[in-house]
Amino acid sequence: MNKFTLDKESARLIVLQRIELLQSFQKKLRKLFGRYIFSNFFLKFFVNTNQIGEKYFYIMKKEYETIENEVKFSNKKYLSIGGGLGGLELIINMETKNNFFYFIEKNYVSKKVKYGWDDKNLEAYNNLQLVEKFLTKNGMNINKFKIYDFDTNNFPNEKFDFIISLYSLDYHYDFNIYLEYLKKISNDQSKIIFDTIRADYFKNIFKNVKIIQSVDNTVHKSKRIICSEFI
Ligand SMILES: C[S@@+](CC[C@H](N)C(=O)[O-])C[C@H]1O[C@@H](n2cnc3c(N)ncnc32)[C@H](O)[C@@H]1O
User: Fold this and answer.
1) Parallel, antiparallel, or unpaired for β 145-149 and 100-105?
2) According to the model, what pLDDT value does residue 119 have?
3) Domain contains 11
4) Could you tell me if the CB of 125 is within 6 A of ligand 1?
5) Atom of ligand 1 nearest to the CA of 81
6) How many angstroms separate the alpha carbon of residue 218 from the centre of ligand 1?
7) Angstrom distance (rounded) from CA 71 to CA 160
8) What is the CATH number of the domain that holds 116?
């Protein structure tokens, strides 16, 4: 398998979650007409589903390679926080055996897409029905995952081996929103992986903080860190 199967609606969502999937003419349109008109009008017409299925697979495979050595195990429980459509978890599922995936995401699409820090954590770009459809269409058994809506406050109450949040937790909104919950659902072996621009700050929160990737070619200049053992 070297591409994801997806429908037009899911393709439009992925483009909002992963800006690098836009072609350069689409980026120009977005600049010219503004984010609101672009997201609500142009994206309805200018989305090449096939191409996005291929590119999204490629990007997620590359992301997987950054964490592969840390997460490639069988019989584990994974929690994805803000995982978007779940492309990364699909790849982990393909590469490993007998794992279970939990997802916490939001179930709405903001009117105006913002790509920066979201103080109040009001922004979201997802549709949980489409996440379920996308995961099952691409080979994840319906009995192997559960999806939770962040806004219902009903979160999974399990101990997780891996908690993964790419470009979501502490990249778009404050880690502290999840702090107490993460303490509850982790143990000293749990690994928490996320992207942040303040890696050092987490040395006061966790006993172990390891930088596994530095992204210097964007305005955010973030680090991908893997943390364990709350202090
Ligand atoms: C930039 S996208 C990244 C998606 C995916 N992790 C990826 O790398 O493609 C950020 C995601 O975080 C989600 N999100 C925003 N606030 C959230 C929250 N409090 N809990 C879980 N997900 C959230 C958004 O809906 C969006 O899908």
Assistant:
1) parallel
2) 85
3) no
4) yes
5) 21
6) 18
7) 12
8) 3.40.50.150
Does residue 133 belong to any structural domain of this protein? Answer: yes
Of 166, 160, 223, nearest in space to 188 by CA: 160
Residue 61 token pair:
């495979």
Tokens 């997460």 — which residue?
Answer: 71
Domain count, the chain: 1
Beta-strand pair 206-214/223-230: antiparallel
Could you report the per-residue pLDDT of 163-197, keeping only the tens digit for each? 999 999 999 999 999 999 999 999 999 999 999 99
Task: Measure the CA–CA gap between 158 and 176, rounded to whole angstroms.
Answer: 19
Nearest CA owner, ligand 1 atom 25:
124
The reported pLDDT for the residue numbered 22 is 72
Res. 112: pLDDT tops 90: no
The answer to the question of residue 89 being in a domain is: yes
Q: Which domain holds residue 89?
A: 73-230
In a domain, 24, yes or no: no
84 in contact with ligand 1, CB cutoff 6 A: yes
Contact 86, 135 (CB under 8 A): yes
Q: Is the CB of 38 under 6 A from ligand 1?
A: no
Query: Which residue is closest in CA terms to ligand 1's atom 11?
Result: 82
- How many CA atoms, within 13 angstroms, populate the side-chain half-sphere of residue 76? 23
